[in-house]
Write the structure tokens for this entry.
Amino acid sequence: MLPSINSLNPWLVGVGLNTILLCLAAIAPKKLLTPAGLFHAWLLAILIWGTLGWQGYAVVMFYFLVGSGVTRIGMAQKEAEGIAEKRSGARGPENVWGSALTGALCALGVGLLNWGIFVPSPQSLIPNLQSLLLLGYVASFSTKLADTTASEVGKAYGKSTFLITTLQPVPRGTEGAVSLEGTLAGVVGSVAMALVGWGVGLIDILGVAWCVLAAFIATNLESVIGATLQSKYNWLTNEVVNIFNTLIGAMAAIIFAWLWGIGHGL
């Protein structure tokens, strides 16, 4: 069944709103995105508005604004030490999709369900697929904000940094390094992101717990990947690792919620 004209209206709103924002961002003195990054963020924002409305849009905007702000913490110091994000933190297309590809796929899945293009079988083992996809959407950004916050705060303020696989002291900014300061900041970031998702009605309060737990697991697994595999494979860039990170976070939250639902007859 093709989308009705009413279901297309959000797309028109998304195009208009995000075109205005793109123009404002392009002339703003402080660049949060590269020119190519602006275009890809525009595409992403239209997709999110068209499938999840303002609620989904609020989640991705919260991640982008807070994540961009966190990246600039201690920027002068991190640049002096050679551990700052490239382009002084301005996001390019690879950063946009590294952070948001998993969320975009969850949003697209919700759209396919709402349009009737995909209809789960009544005998499906996952009867509440839409709510699980919404949970995966929020969990992906909760995971990414936890990762960004942990990394940037750890690089700026971490007093002692350890390689996650050996717990041996390593310099700040080392792939796979963790610190107490960064870890705590990451938990705060994941909680804040999950609460936004709950506040706009995409997940319930139990979903907040699943997002935070999934983000903690995924962020630490990402550190393990960074410590063991990233230097061995040229294709395993930070952006690819980010995709794996958010995918693990989304899948973990979905699995937790699904198992909880089975255990409680939901």
